[in-house]
Amino acid sequence: MSEGQAMNAIALDLGGVWRRFPQGAGTLDVLRGVNLTIARGEIVALVGPSGAGKSTLLHIAGLLEPPTEGRVMIGGQQANGLDDAQRTLLRRAHLGFVYQYHHLLPEFSAVENVILPQMIAGVSRGAARKRAVSLLESMGLAARIDHRPGQLSGGEQQRVAICRALANKPALLLADEPTGNLDPNTSETVFAELLRLVRDEGLSALIATHNPELARRMDRMVTLRDGLVCEVSPA
Ligand SMILES: Nc1ncnc2c1ncn2[C@@H]1O[C@H](COP(=O)(O)OP(=O)(O)OP(=O)(O)O)[C@@H](O)[C@H]1O
């Protein structure tokens, strides 16, 4: 295996990541030297008490904000020091996001919401539609592809958001409480479908959750406490 291929076997590499916010007259160190590596194909749960820094870590891994200090590598590529345009390209090429709230475009249908990011990435409309329909069908939404988000249930909306996040086959899916907005039964079902799809597609994921049952279904559980990864246990 060449060095390039070996590096690409790593979806995410965070080294000595600090995140410091101003607080009153002083500062708040939310992350204090986090080290975390996620291999391609690995699904990792990010857990920890409220305020531990899970969302902050996901923002840094997602190149949405820079660390105060430390290394961020995505798919073997260095993210530190890139300008906005380069960061956007790296994000589009390698990352997918699912949030607690779906953030779908309300005036577009389900299938159009999944087609759009592919067309932005340069995929032809025909190929993008084919993949979008296939993803939506695999999430049980065959009869809903032409519905707008407002005509879908909360669970269906979140399924569409998951299909959209995976449309460009990101090396790494970042998800912040992806089913936290749903009732417990729907959350359970949608979460199982999310994991199945990520595994079927051979992708990696870092998923923040407060639900220990859901966390245990992943390959590895990373606990954040006091700004550090304090536990990496087999799930
Ligand atoms: N932009 C900011 N400015 C100042 N403080 C911030 C900022 N963003 C986050 N924080 C602080 O960082 C800490 C960690 O927040 P974060 O949202 O990352 O925690 P979390 O583990 O995701 O919490 P939860 O489980 O409740 O979502 C909190 O104390 C929060 O107030």
What does this structure look like?
Keywords: ATP-binding, Cell inner membrane, Cell membrane, Lipoprotein, Membrane, Nucleotide-binding, Transport. Residues 12-235 form the ABC transporter domain. This is Lipoprotein-releasing system ATP-binding protein. The protein has one domain (3-234): P-loop containing nucleotide triphosphate hydrolases (Rossmann fold). The protein has eight helices and ten strands. It has a six-stranded mixed beta sheet with strand order 6-7-8-3-9-10, with helices on both faces. Strands 2-1-4-5 form a four-stranded antiparallel beta sheet. The protein has helices at 3-8, 54-61, 84-94, 110-120, 125-138, 154-166, 184-200, 212-216, and strands at 10-23, 26-39, 43-47, 69-74, 77-78, 95-98, 172-176, 204-208, 220-225, 228-234. The longest helix has 17 residues, at 184-200. Helix 4 packs across helix 5 and helix 6 (154-166) packs parallel to helix 7 (184-200). The protein has 235 residues and is an alpha/beta fold. Bound molecules: adenosine-5'-triphosphate (ATP). Adenosine-5'-triphosphate (ATP) binds at residues 21, 28, 30, 48, 50-56.
